Every structure is written in structure tokens, then in C-alpha cells.
Amino acid sequence: MSILTFPTQKIGDLTITAVSDGYLHASFDFLANIDPADASRMQENAGIKDHTSIHINCYLVRGGGRRVLIDTGAGGFKQWGGRLKTNLLLAGIQPFEIDAILLTHAHPDHVGGLMDASGAAVFPNAELVAHHREVAFWQDDGNLSRAPERARGNFLVARQAFDGYRDRLRTFEGGKVLPGITAMPLPGHTAGHTGYRLESGGQNLLVWGDIVHFPQIQVPRPEVSIAFDQDAYLAAETRKRLLDLASSERLLIAGMHLGELGFAQVERRGASYRVAYEMAAPD
């Protein structure tokens, strides 16, 4: 199967491909600042049949002789996702060919695919790259002791991932992390939640991580937060700022929960915003 079977965009000399890891589900009871019935109605109006389904994207970046992954999906944690490795193989990519993995953050649906069921690293030759605040947060025993019971498993998954790549773990504060890829702090969702701005040949794309989980709800209503946000107010402020930036600059956006098409632009409609999905680049 050709790699262009998957949603793909060209940014100068870089080729960016959305590789699906599958789905997770989250009840609308996890959302704040919206009635669950309203949330369901918005999903229905957008043509989404499975209202509480959240798609999980990972992004493969090829260029300059490198193969880079941005996030690795859930890896089957809580029966979420788990399709990344299979889809990479269908795209013609073997795990040992991945040179670097950039993390937007270390929630299980982003780092679960780093380790297999036996606890071995799935990507044996990849450098793991993450914001230093993100690594520090999940490795802090005080944060673990204060975490609600439902979130403690998240710490175990993150720690296993960091430990599995400890000899190849690189942390950053900001700035350029790889040629053509610059880290962009997007605070609120987690301590070190980070987007990655890709630039080549005068073109730009922003991988914005978990700015939204339900794009058809949270883009037009950015005040709607989700229980996964560590700081719901800050996450909403970051979302509003980024929607303004993306619409003003007409930035091409990629997001881990943006949907199966993988790429979109944000269009301003008066005082509101909407998602306009992009079609894959031609062969």
C-alpha cells in the first residue's frame, strides 16, 4: 500500500503524513461549559455518527534524510487505539527506520505506542524528544501522590515510556528541536504541552497536539474544556489565542484529535471559528 493512501501534505521539502492509531471514547460528562445535550447536537449537525468517539492521529514527517514521528498513539492502553505500528507498516515504514519521536505531551494516548506489551521499546533507533517540564511533571512523586485515582495509571505509562528510552531521551526548553521543526509552547493541557511548527520552502504547518479533543465542538466554542486538561482555564485561553493565530495566518493545522482527515485550516466566522478540512496532497 502506498504511503499516499494516508492523508499527506507537502510543506516545502517536508512530507507530513497523518497515521491513525484508532480511537478512544470520552463521555460528554468530561466536558465543561457546555450541556451534554448541546454537545451531542453539535456532533450530530456536523455529521458525526459516533458522538463520543475521539480519533487519535500521529504524524510522520519525512525530509532531509530523516523519518520523524510526532506522538505514538495509545498503543492499546485501556483498549484505546493500538493501530499505529500496523498502519506504519502499511505506509511502508518499519519501526527501526524512525530516527526521532517528538512528544506533544505524555498522556497515555500519545506515549502508549512507545512500548510494546512486553515492555520493550517499539522504536529501537529513535531519539525521544520532549519538553523538560513535561518529563519533570510525570517523574515527580509529589505530583503522583496528589493525582486522583483515575489519573495514577497515566503516571505509570509515562514513566515506563521515559524509562524505556532513557539512553535516548532529549529534553528542550524551546526553539528549534530538529532542522525545520520549532517547538511552540501551548500551556494548559499539561505542564509541558507543546506544538511543533514545521517550516520549509516558505511554507508552514503547525502540529497543535491536544488543543481540541472534539474539534466540531471546541473550535466554534473554545471555552469548552475537557477533564483531561490540567489547567482548564489556561487551556481555553491557549485555544482562543491559537485559533486567532491560525485563522489570521491561514496556518495549515495538524492535530492529534483533529479527525481522520488529519489536516485543516481554521476559518473565522464573525466572532466564531470553524474547521475547514484539507484534502491530501496529490501524488
Automatic annotation (TrEMBL):
Q: Kindly list the GO molecular function terms attached to this UniProt entry.
A: hydrolase activity; metal ion binding
- Judging by the UniProt lineage, the source's domain of life is Bacteria
| Record has Cell inner membrane as a keyword | no
Q: For the Metallo-beta-lactamase domain, which residue ranges apply?
A: 55-257
- Matches recorded under Pfam families: Lactamase_B
Q: What keywords is this UniProt entry annotated with?
A: Hydrolase, Metal-binding, Zinc
Which family is this protein grouped under? Belongs to the metallo-beta-lactamase superfamily.
From the Swiss-Prot or TrEMBL record, give the protein name: MBL fold metallo-hydrolase
Gene source species:
Xanthobacter dioxanivorans
